[in-house]
Each structure stands twice: as C-alpha cells, then as structure tokens.
Amino acid sequence: MSIQDNYKTLLEKSKRVIIYGTVSSLLGWDFETKMPPKGGKQRSVQFSTLATDMHKMIIDPEGGKLLNVIKEDENYSSLSKEQQRNIYLIKKEYDKATKLPTELVSEIAQLQILGVETWKKAKEAKDYSIFKPMLEKILDLQKKKAHYLDPNKDPYDVLIDTFEPKMDSVMITKLFDELKAGLVPLIKKIQAAEKQPDISLLRRSVPIELQEKLSDDLAKVVNYDLEKGRIDTTEHPFTTGYFDDVRITTHYYENEFDNSFFSVVHEAGHAIYEQNISQEYIYQPIGQMSSLGIHESQSRFIENIVCRSKNFWEYYFPRFNELTKGIFADIDLKAFIHAINMVKPSKIRVTADEVTYSIHVIIRFEIERDLISGKLTLDELPAAWNQKYKEYLNVDIQDDSEGVLQDTHWAGGAFGYFPTYALGNIYNAHMLHVLRNDLPNYDELVRTGNLKPIIEWMTEKVHRPSNLYDPADLMKRITGESVNPQYFIDYLNKKYAELYNF
Amino acid sequence: MSIQDNYKTLLEKSKRVIIYGTVSSLLGWDFETKMPPKGGKQRSVQFSTLATDMHKMIIDPEGGKLLNVIKEDENYSSLSKEQQRNIYLIKKEYDKATKLPTELVSEIAQLQILGVETWKKAKEAKDYSIFKPMLEKILDLQKKKAHYLDPNKDPYDVLIDTFEPKMDSVMITKLFDELKAGLVPLIKKIQAAEKQPDISLLRRSVPIELQEKLSDDLAKVVNYDLEKGRIDTTEHPFTTGYFDDVRITTHYYENEFDNSFFSVVHEAGHAIYEQNISQEYIYQPIGQMSSLGIHESQSRFIENIVCRSKNFWEYYFPRFNELTKGIFADIDLKAFIHAINMVKPSKIRVTADEVTYSIHVIIRFEIERDLISGKLTLDELPAAWNQKYKEYLNVDIQDDSEGVLQDTHWAGGAFGYFPTYALGNIYNAHMLHVLRNDLPNYDELVRTGNLKPIIEWMTEKVHRPSNLYDPADLMKRITGESVNPQYFIDYLNKKYAELYNF
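The joint structure predicted for all components is written out below.
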C-alpha cells in the first residue's frame, strides 16, 4: 500500500467520526428546540449510542496502526501540508482517546450529569457548601485526566490545550496580566466620567414579531446565509451545525430587544465561521474550527466590533427604525449608541459589557489556575472569588448564586475553557488592526453597511484555513506578530473615550 | 457462554441497528420539515453514512455466528416466546441482507433516485414513454432481488413478504377478488342513489390558525399524545418516530379544512400505534410494527371508522363549531356527515373516498402481479391501467399523469407495497367486528367522544404485541378466524346505505 492509499484510508475513518459528529449536533439542536417534552429518554439513548460508536472509531487499533505506518513511511515528506496536518490532528485525537482509561471516561461522563444537577440545587439554595464535595470530585477527575494525557506537563496546561491548542497558563497569565492592567484603569475612567448613558430606552416594548423580522434582517446584513441556516428560540442562545447547515438560536423578550439583537449577531458570527470553512476541507480534521478562542473571536467581532460600533449604527439606525415601526424614532442616534455600549461593572459574566467582560473571565482563569496548582483550596474558593470581584470590579457579591455558582462550566468538568472567551477579544482586536491596514476604507464599509468585503477578509484569513493552524500560529500568520492584548486595550480606549467623553 | 448470554449479545447488536433507525428517522423528519434549503448535500452524506453502517451491523458475521450457535443450542426451547421471535426476526433480516450482493444493493439504491427523478419528468410531460425504459430496469432489478432472496418462490411473493410478512399473491388475489365483488355493486348503488351530498360546504374558508387549533384538539380527542409527539407541516403528510417521540405532519389549505382534518387523524392513527408499543419490547425486533398493512389498519381505523362516523360527529360537531368560530354553524349535521363521506369514483388514489379507495389499490395489485409474472408487458401497461379504471370505476383516464404515472412507488422500486393499503381496510373492519363484541357500548363511546377504551382495546390487541406475530397470525389471534374481507364490505354497505338512503 502506498502512503497515499494509507492516508486515504485513515482520512476516511476520520471523516466518518466527523460526519457522526454532525448527526449528533442535529440531535442536540432538535433536543433544544423541537423535541417533544417526553422525548428525552430516547434522545439520551441515541446520544450515548452515537458517542460510544464515535469513541470506538477514534480508538480503533486499525487507525493507530495506519498512523504508525504513515509516520514511519520514508515518503512521509511527500505528503502535502494539509495531509500532514490532518495526520497530526488525527494522531492527537487518537492519543488523547487511547491514553484515557475507559473507566475514567465513563466516570467523568457520569459526574458531568451529577455535577450539573448538584450545581443547580446549590445555585438555587445559594449555598456553595452543597456543591463543594461534588466540585472536589470533579476537580480530582480532571487532574487525573490531565495526568493520563501528559504526566510531564502542568495539568492545567494539559486541560487548556483541549480547548485552545498549544496555549498554556504561563502565556495566558502574561496576556491576561497585560489585559487587566489596561482594563482596570479604563473602567475607573468610565465610571468617573460625567457623561453616562440613559439605558431606559432599551426597555421599550418591541413586539416579538418585529424582533423576529429584525433577526432575519440582521442575518442578511452580517452575511449569515439563511439558505444554509435558520433561527429558532431557546432559553440560552447557541450555534450548532457545520458548513451548509449551521443553525443559531436566540431568546426574545418584549422589553429587551437588545438581548436578542446582540445574541443574534453574536451567534451569527459563530455561524459565519462554520459556513465559510473551505469546501475542500469539509469533514476533515483541518476543516474543523481552529480553537474555541478563534471561534469566540468571530462571534465577538460581529457582535461588538461591528454591530456595537458608531459606524454600524449610522448605517443601520434608519433601517432599524423602519423595522421597529418608529418605536425609537424620537431617540437621538448618539444616545442610542451610548446606551447599547453602556459599561457598568456587574456580578454576572454573561450579561457583562464589552469592557468589563474580560475581567470576569480573568477572575475565573486565575482561580482555576490556582485551584489546580493547589495554591487555592476549595474551602477558600468563595472568599477568593468575592475578593477578586471587589478588587478588580469594585463589586460586592451578596451570595454564592451570583458569585462562584453563577456559571455551569466547572460543574460540567470544563476547566481550561473560560480563558477562551477573553482570548477571543484579544484575537479579534488584533485581527482588526491588520484588517484596517488591508482595507483602509474599513470605516466607510461599516458606515454604508457593506460588510461583505470585511467578512470576505475574515473568511480568507480565518474561516477557510480553519484548523490548518493552531490558534497562536494562525494569529502569527494573520498579524505577523505574537498575540498582543494591547490592540484590544487601544481599541477599547479609543472607542470609550469618545463615548464617555474623557 | 450460556444461550442467554449469546442471546443477550445478539439482541444488543440488533437493538443498536434499531436505535440507528430512530436517528435516521429524525434526520428524515428534519429533512422534510426544518432543514435549510441548501442542507441537502450534508444530509445525504449523513443518511448514507448511517445506512452503510446499519447495513454493516446487520450483515456482521459475528451476528451470523451467534444466530447459528443459538439455533443449534440444545437449550433453544428454554428461550421464551419473545426471545424466539426476536431470533426469528433477526435471522430473517440477516438472511435478507446477506443474500443480496452488495453491487445489487447499491444498483437498486442508485436507481431509486434516478427512477424518481425520471418519473417526475415523465409525469410532468404526461408521457409514460419517458419513464418506460427506467421502469424496465427497476422491474428487472426487483426481480433479481427476489430471486436472490428466494429462488424457489414466486418473485412477487418474495417482494410482498418484505412489506407484509407471509402474505402472498394467491392469498391477496382471493381477498381482493372478494373485496372487488363486494365493492363494485356497492359503488353502483351509491352512484344510482337519488340522495347525493353537497360538498360545497367543505370549501368554506377556515383560517389556518383555526385549523392548527383543530389539529391540536383532534390529537387530544383521538389520544395521540403530544407530549410524545408534535405536528408540523409538509407537502405530503406523514408519520415518523418511535415510542416516546412520534411526530406527524399535515398540510393546511384555507379552503380545504377537511384535507388537513382527515390527514391529522389518519397520521395520528399511525402515531398511536408507535406510541403504544410495549415498553418491554422497546428497540427490539418484536417492538417494531407487525406490517405495513397492520399500520395502515390503525390509521384508517381512526380516520374512517371513527372520525368519519355519524356517532363521532354527533359528539364532535358542537366542539368543531366552537373551534371554527361558527363558520359551519348554519350547516345541518346530517348534511355535514354526508359531505365528508361523499363517494365518487375518481382517477387519483390518494384523494379517493373510503369506498372506492380499495379499488385503486386492487388495480395496482393486479397490474404489479401480472407485470412480474410476465402476463402483462410494459408496453401494454398504460392501456391495461386505463382499461381497469374504466371497468372497475367507470372512469376515463385522459393522460398518463393522472393514470399510470400518478404514484411514485414503482419509481422508487416498491413492488408489493400497494396491497398493504387495502389490507389495512380489510384488517380494521374485521377488528371492529370483534371490538364491538368486546365493547358492546362501542357506539355510545364514540358518540360521547370517549375513545380511550377503544384505543386501549387496540393497544392491547395490536399496539402492545407489535411484531410478536406476523399480520395473518395476529389477525387470527384477535379475531379467531382467517382474514375475511366480508366484514369490511358489510361495514361499508351498512354505513353507506344509511348515508345514501338505499
């Protein structure tokens, strides 16, 4: 068998897993949006059947053998860059799956469900102590998992790598320290500013059917192709799907049009990434996302950098007024833009504004890191949480439900996930810097609602290469330098100085 | 390994295929109802991946070995009736799948798509000659398939068995000859009757949102559990799903409320069958439908025997008038009942009434049978079709699109499928006869809208045993005698003599 034959066999196996993944995604979408109330039992049977079979396919010894044969073939270097990267990614997944003992995998899976259940109860009771014993088990299993994956590496770094390949806590600490150093004084300036927005206008009632029309219109404006997607409603908005079928969800509240508005453009940003993956890479490992951080860079780019910008609203406000039938016709455009960009330190991450959001993430990162290293104990966790919120955001946490229990990630065993949210901000502001050089008329394009060249730039730089590069390498290729948080700090300072007039 | 261990292993393998089937059904549902317009390519990749893997699981030599070991085990008779039946059904499927050469299977699959495409073109052009060469190939492959499955049996019987196990063309010919002998004079009597219904009332406009409310209400009335199902819209109504997730579709036309009304109760009848399969049999071969004919008996029972009956409308008409906000308030109940039971020989099967419907099916059966035996050639087909429509229904076929090209079944390679439609009528009228003995207050139950005991009777007799028996055996168990079309003829004569006053 030639190396090309072996490669082809290996790739077909890998594609099969990815196709199963798309099937599983659809089951997940249906579960969240359309499934009858009592369909859950059957759905969990379907999920676990597919998951078991996907796992079997990944750890198939045939695949392991093929990987070895290919790696040791004297013609290895005759493979293209894309082929070599596919092999690298398949091997990485194979190693990850085969290194973990089956019992550990199933223990983690079980604890994931129990963990979320217990977390819910604890959150409701506003009592961290209910959750603590469970969190101890979860943390313990995650450390074990990290040890199995790579006993020679810092366990937290191993976990980070599963979400943001080749990032580690030293790099992130450096980035986040710089970010924090830039954000904290900016937040103080904003809070001290005399000019403050009036957000009461955002609470005006906008009928759901108008908000639905807004969603469809926004999809068009930001180039989310609804011929290859659709918008449904769920309690928590999300994006799911792949390539020519990528679906988003939102949640409509009559008195919070902005809630759905920015959810739609955020999720559309995620969806655009998936829709524009290279046709030639489809169902291949290189045709998957580069990382969660890169994915988040895309959603936050569309949501914040584009759709909360002054330029965008100069274009969109008349159209917005038309679609909302004059509900906001008496509003001054500047006041409107200021309202949707209000900065206010708060306790809850998911509703945080563009400036303070990263601080929420940094707090979680620092805590995760110190929990796993043992620098912080689980007993000290709530106090450490509350103290950081006081120190970084000057916010007083009243109880655990609005503090350490607010997010579900740890309950589900996701340690190392949080940093990706803030990395998305750092990445996309850095991308914006290059984008502005490549498209000097960037402001004009946004101001005229002509986002196509901008999306095309992103497609060329980010969407199409998808997983051909790890995130740091991808950023280097795009920007010519290492990931640098200064661009994000500069972007924020410029934008908010103008808004808050300081 | 004990026989019980081997049985357990074999059953788990079989369950896996059935679970995959439920996943594939959901993909199919989504394809018809929610999928974005351009999602078809990915969906077909998903479908064919699952289908290939299901096929692999079915023909897995491990399964074949287990079947042999179990069959030859000296303790075979220690297995329960249910276990033995599961083994019988698994073996039947294994034999069917392993007897067909892979190339034939893939040829048939390819021709299925091409066949439907060509049929569509021919139907549009109203020209059978466009379709004929394709039909020749399809018929040829179906004969080959039958030969591979059982070279010693009449090929048509082999094909029938794939839809209606253990039925054959001799038995069906006998049943259908009797049925025809009963129906043809009845139709003549109805046509000759002085009293004819006025169906113009059915064309009154009923807003779609009212029709949707009617659908939900009907689900409740006929005991279709919407906690385990849902109603969506598609061009052609269908039912799909299993046990605790069984979904139906309908199609709303503002000026044809009856179209959706009777579609909903028809599909609900199918859905009730699947929802009430025995919990202990779930995902097992015995927990599947007994046959297409039995399935159709359930849909037609709810649609025709229950929901087109005088008794039902005595109960439902006030509720119907309330839900339709008085649109039919001026209509006499008897006139209404007559209108929804109008009998009129026509050219198109899918829109045929309760009496003439079976004639449409008999025509297709006689033609299929004679095509496969060679008694009829493909050149003679359209003339034979038109001649039978003239002879049995006194209807003149103008062109092939309303004649031989009206149904898609043959284009998709489904020979032996049509008879199941009329068998459903024969089965359910026979069931009704026994049901009336078991529940002497049957009429009263329907007249008061108390359908629960009736559905429970069906559940006990038909739904719960599901595939524990082949259809003829199931009928024998329920009725104590062989399938007898006379009950259907009697039922129709009584009902329509009253309606048409002869």
